[in-house]
Queue: 2 jobs
Job 1
Amino acid sequence: MSTADQLKTEKSERRLTAEARDLTDLEWCHEADREGEVFSVRRNPETFYEVIIESRVPFEQRRQETPPAMWELMEAEVAPIRGKKGFVLSSTIEGGGVAMQEPPALDLLNEMGADVTWLVSDNDPEAFITTKKMHNLQQDVLGAGETFTAEDKAKHKEYGLKNFRGMMENVPGFAEADFYWIEDPQLAAMIPELMKINPNATFIYRNHIQTDRDKMAEPGSPQNLIYEYLRDECAVGKVDAYVAHPVEQFVPYGTEHVVAMPPTSELHEDLNREVSEEEKQEKLQWLDGQVMKQNFLRRYANREQYMREHGEEPSDEEYYKDDQPLFDRSRKWLTGFARFDKAKGQEFNMRLQMLITDKLVSLGAPEELIPHTIITGNGATDDPDRNKVLAEMIELRGTRYADYAKYITVVGLEHDFTAVNVLLANSMYTENFSVAEGFEHRRTEGMLKGTPSLSSNAGGLPLQGKDGEGGFVADLERMDEELDRIADEVVADILDEARYAARREATLQWAEEFSKQELTTVANVTRFARIVNGKGDRKWKIGEMLKDREAEGRRYTQEMGARAAQ
């Protein structure tokens, strides 16, 4: 069924969101079918671990849309891995940046003659509690008493080795690959086993999260315990390439074979493609439906908990206490889209709403100019923190920010890339005030749509644009004054439409000149191939590689001319 036909069918089935009386009226408001997306993914039923990727983007279209010099650079880097067999290993098929980058990149690689298969481990909630704990400890967002224990280590090893055995038994050619690319720590425990059975293969380990080299160097710290475990017992210290975001602080001291590689976005996927007006309206209604759906679920949970604790029906105030307002389409939106995660700094979004509201009121601005803050995100299969952090944000909105609650919506979304596309494109600003961050390329994806960004300077966020390049970047060490500064800028944009229009235009120009070249799929495939070929280094910008290639071509021409003259 085409997208248009599907939308017509859904539209005929649905009741207006405002009229929804219970969850049965919202049955149409479900997560998107991954098999219907531009890059559809599904597990191979014969092997379980292999992911089948199907693309609706013709190869020739990609070639025509890419600047010739970039395409030629990519072809030159991919050529040496044609005929080789490789596996990319990760822990989730959806949710999070890894799962979003793999489909377009691996599809393009295979279209160019490489043979790279994506393998995803099984869904083990107990193991994911441990791997998420490792993630949070490395990002230093847990309490002082938390550390990496022997039980954590045992669970991590058990999960990696269980999936190693499963892949060995079910995935053809798994033991004979030319290279293995391991994404993040979840499956690192299988590296030593792979090195035993296939010692001549190339091994590449990629770290996507913010890690602190100074804390990793501190004996006995949680970060040090995890780092030494991964380095020594999981053989990360023996890999042929250690891939990190282009942030030197992320790289452990003494690490060899370090390669810089940022995450990227895909221009054709549902998250970034052009959306028709009809589809836009459908997805706006879907977003309203998601808010209503969460409201019903929270009411049912509140009633159940109250009756269990008190043996009687709750008051209306107790029953409806977690209700969130629908996205107010009459107001400008300030949208923070990210996983509900301790490191995402989502309370800063509420603080900014408070500051902006107070400033507009003090200026005597009409009430309708006050913007609406949206704090939202999907979950990931390997991320058990989602519901806990979502509940914390809902509670903060209703307590600390109760006076501003009618201008704030906190909602966890089911998976739908097109709806996120519509949300980011129709926001006044996007927000990413993470306190610890690997990269978070929702920032770039907003800028690609002309939506300026408000972010912190955590991790790789500033690499997508410094302060003034596609938005504003706040210094985490001075967050009170930085939020006040940013609030002044947003208020000025609200009061001056021409000023804001110029900012959107400047954001689009930045995305066109920088983001599309450096932070999209062709750049990703180019870097991937360079690393597999052993050419990776700390140089990551495609613009620099193109200059080097051009200079090399000039030198070659000059040398040939000199020889001919002799």
Job 2
Amino acid sequence: MTNHTDKTANSEKTISGIDVMRGVGVERAKPFWADAWHRVVIRRGAQAGLLWIAIVGFFAIFAPVIANGLPLWTVEKTQLDGEGEVTRSFSPLFESLTSTDLLLLLGGVLGPLLFFIPIGMTRQRKLGVITSAAVIGGTIVVLIALLQYIFMPEDGSAGEWSAFSVWVCFGSSFAVGLVLCMLPTFRSIPGRIVFAFVIAFIAGLVCIDRWSAPVLQPERFVRGESEGTMTNTYTLIPWSPTQSRGEYYSIPPRNTTGDAFEMIAEDRLNDGVGYLARTVVFNLGGSIEGLPLSRQNKNNLVEGLICNCPGPFDALSEAGVSSRYVQLFKSTGKELADYRAAIESEDSAGARTAAKAVQESFSGLQSAGRNSGIAINDALAELQTKIDERIDYLRKAENVLKTTYGVRVFHLGTDPIGRDVLSQMLWACRLSISIGLVSTGISVLIGIIVGALMGYFGGWVDLVLSRILEIFMAVPVLFLLIVAASVLPRNTYVMMTIIGCVTWTGSARFIRAEFLKLRNQDFVQSCRAVGLPLHSTLFRHMLPNGVTPVLVQASFGVAAAIIAEATLSYLGLGPYGQPSWGKLLSLTTGETGVFLWWMAVFPGLAIFLTVLAYNVLGENFRDAIDPKMRKAAN
């Protein structure tokens, strides 16, 4: 009893009225955005959505060093005439990285360190610094890519550290730093200027160094390792998204390269035997006594010759085929089985004997005509001439299994062109995230400016801009993207720009509605009374009080942009040379019309989860800032 009383006394502290007036025992209220974010992250759905978005963002940044067919480190030995051996060590993976890859890797490492290390800045300020650095670096990369596309000499003479590349890179960096030096990174203006130009200088330096990245082929290093002239160390997933080989067409998940070579060798052997059986059976004469060749009999005969099983031959006997021909075909099926076994055991003499016996068995059969006889003779001749080729390919498959290259795994299989699906999916994260975030950022920026003018001025300004807004609302985004893909260059920047410049109408309507409510409030009238500039009144004082609905709508806009990109890529109109979930989904039926289940499941699941994550996050954020929902929760 005494312990219970002591606990109650410790948990319930009595304070006086003066302490209450002083604020003793009163918890400090959280800022609006901090409170809203707290209400979002405590929800299970939002946590799952944020986790998936973080996973996609991680792979979007680090995909070049996680999934790459180029070695992480290579030791190359070169034999010089009369001068011994020279060893060179280098990183092909690092040399192949573009300026965008390097800047993303730099930001992906330094950004989280800045955000989580305590350095005397609030998290909001740290997030502003990281976002500003990303905006400055991204703008410089896009501007340099545009200038390089327009003004690059056709002879390609402008290499690294040439006068042209230096002027373009550092000129673009200086211009972007000058324009964006007032981004709200630090409190002091000199600090903002120094930060902007430091980031701009680093971005320009990286762009000069990677003005033209060398083109390195992964197969060169595979060949060098098999010849013993190279020692390679690979990353986690040793496949590039564009790396392809004929032996890897449509390989199911969890198979290795050695398994792929074995399957190809077996398929070649099966195709050879099957080709012979079908060619002979379907070119036999239809008037052979004791051998009625109906369609069903032909199918049973082909099946019996290929599998050397008694069932199809028994069906032939029941269908009226004479026992002489049934025994002939049974013995031929056994000889084809001996041929197959001899090939698999690399016995060329036994394979030739079996092939000769098959040829003798079929030599007495009557063909349907002259051309049919030629086809049968060609098929029998191929059974003889392809023996060494089939044995050599089996030996090649066995040699591949003995190397480190032979144990590489296709975790999610390959597409119909022989490219690894997992590496393409990881690289496609970058396209989906960049399309979603950048295009939504453009649409939100345009929507805020147009909506602010409509809501603040009203009158004829609102009337004119409302008609323009309705025109853009009537534009079908998907059909516009399809038309643009046939006229404009098919790259990521064009797609981002088109989506952003057409989908801003929702943000403009939200901002207009908020500004119509805010423009007659006291703090806005005070801004007018003291003579603040229009941009300060709109974007510094009114916008923070009315931007909440736009931020909620932006998460749904990101999901819509990802769907638009996936749809366009599915139709074959996406950006050139870039992996995309939609493009992978379009290869589901393969080149031969065969359904590949792994090409439908994994990319489709990635699109579904990413869109669902953004939608769930938007719904939870909307509920967190809704006054009615907050009141009900309390």
